[in-house]
Specification:
two-stranded antiparallel ribbon; Arc Repressor Mutant, subunit A; 5 helices; alpha+beta
Length: about 110
């Protein structure tokens, strides 16, 4: 490499790791991407190894990153709160699908 030439990584790894490197973040994103909007309890049941406090922290972190949003869903004729992917979260989910397939094949 010629002197003075600096290389720039086309993928900012620190930013990527900051978002998806948080404990359980990828699991929550893929769960919501696959099933759609879910209330806290079904998310918790789907990830039994996650404590409620850790799940709450993960969801809040994903909300701060604009990957997950709280939404209202109607169940049994009444509106309740749930979590759903935002457009940005959907884009992340779509990019994780091939990665998950690669991991299963490995």
């Amino acid at each position: 490499m010629p002197r003075g030439l600096s290389l720039v990584c086309p993928c900012p790894p620190a930013g990527l790791v900051d978002v998806v490197g948080k404990k359980w973040a990828v699991c929550v994103v893929t769960l919501l991407g696959h099933h759609g909007a879910l209330r806290f309890a079904p998310i918790q049941r789907s990830l039994p190894a996650v404590s409620p406090a850790t799940l709450t922290s993960t969801l809040r972190s994903l909300e701060r990153e604009h990957l997950v949003a709280r939404v209202r869903i109607s169940t049994d004729g009444r509106a309740t709160g749930a979590y759903a992917l935002t457009e940005r979260g959907e884009a992340l989910y779509r990019s994780l699908v091939p990665f998950a397939s690669w991991l299963r094949a490995a």
